[in-house]
Amino acid sequence: MKIDMNITRLPDALLLDQADFLVQQERETTVMILRHLREIEVRRLYVELGYSSMHKYCIQKLRYSEGQAYRRLTSARLMTELPEIEPQIQAGDLNLTNLSKIQSFVRSEKAANCELDKKEKLELIASVENKSTREVEHELVKKSHQPLLMAEKFKMTGQVLSQVLSESSQSGFNYQQFQTLLNPEQQELLQEFKNLYAHELNDLSNHSVLIFLLEKAVHHKKKKLGLLKKSDNASLSSAPKGAGPNATKRKPIKMAVKRNLWNRAEGCCEHIDPKTSKRCREKFALKEIMFSHSH
């Protein structure tokens, strides 16, 4: 179809036809862009151009906004994993915003040890076709094993979350929203806390961090005031798993040694991959990361 650029003089019918044609072209172009982004990422061409990540390449080189870059990258990865969804994207049954929400849900389920297989992912995607973003968010929160984390990611209010969960099996709760503003230094401190305490938190939501700190603070204060029963002390004890009367006693590592090791490692995992000879340098959930490297 030849496009007439003088749209102000177009008859109504032709104007509508051109709009339909251009939108379809846009969808086809979007699919091609997703393919290109994924191939660039696989080949790591962004590194050769001097960018530390695909996200920075998309923002600085391709001039996408942060939101646009995130939606396209998550959609490209999902489409690579599930090429069956490509026709739905071209047809407009699936949009990038909803695909990025689904990818966020999939990662959340994997973190909760409830990883979806390919069939389940395709069924999930089919269930949200042609739905609004709000409807998709509600569906994902209902299905999630970490509903509070998903609600936080989707920026749901406490009232909306209570309403959504009342429609599922997780009913009977009345959620109250708690909000705060953090400056960059405080955000960095929050992330460092999550890195260090990831193995003790239920999930990585700010809700879990708040509950964890409240429980610890209240327990500490009650213990100081002598208000705790023996059973309360036992419930929050930090005895290692598997420890028993016959467990081998280990000599505690001196604090100075711990401090020197931490400073030397710069707070990062020091495991070296035997295949690539590269150091891990992961900061998140160090205790679990080091355990996985040793097994």
Fill in the keyword field for this structure.
single chain, 295 residues, mainly alpha, 15 helices
Description:
This protein starts with 11 loop residues before the first helix and ends with a helix. 60% of the residues lie in helices and 0% in strands. Helix 3 (54-61) crosses helix 4. The longest helix has 32 residues, at 12-43. The chain is mainly alpha-helical. Among the domains are: 7-94, no CATH class; 178-234 and 279-295, no CATH class.
Element string (H = helix, E = strand)? HHHHHHHHHHHHHHH
Total helices: the number is 15
| Overall radius of gyration | 25 Å
Q: Report the biggest beta sheet as strand number plus sense, adding barrel if it closes.
A: none
Query: Kindly state the mean pLDDT as a whole number?
Result: 81
The helix-and-strand class reads: mainly alpha
Strand content: under 5%
Helicity, as a percent range: 55-70%
Number-wise, the strands total: 0
Q: What is the CA-CA span between the terminal residues?
A: 61 Å
- Poorly predicted segments: 238-245
Shape: globular
What's the SSE blueprint?
Elements lengths: L11 H32 L1 H4 L5 H8 L4 H16 L4 H6 L4 H16 L6 H10 L5 H11 L3 H7 L4 H9 L17 H14 L8 H20 L4 H6 L19 H11 L20 H8 L2
Helix pairs in contact: 1-4, 3-4, 4-6, 6-8, 8-9
Give me a quick take on this structure.
By secondary structure, the protein is mostly helical.
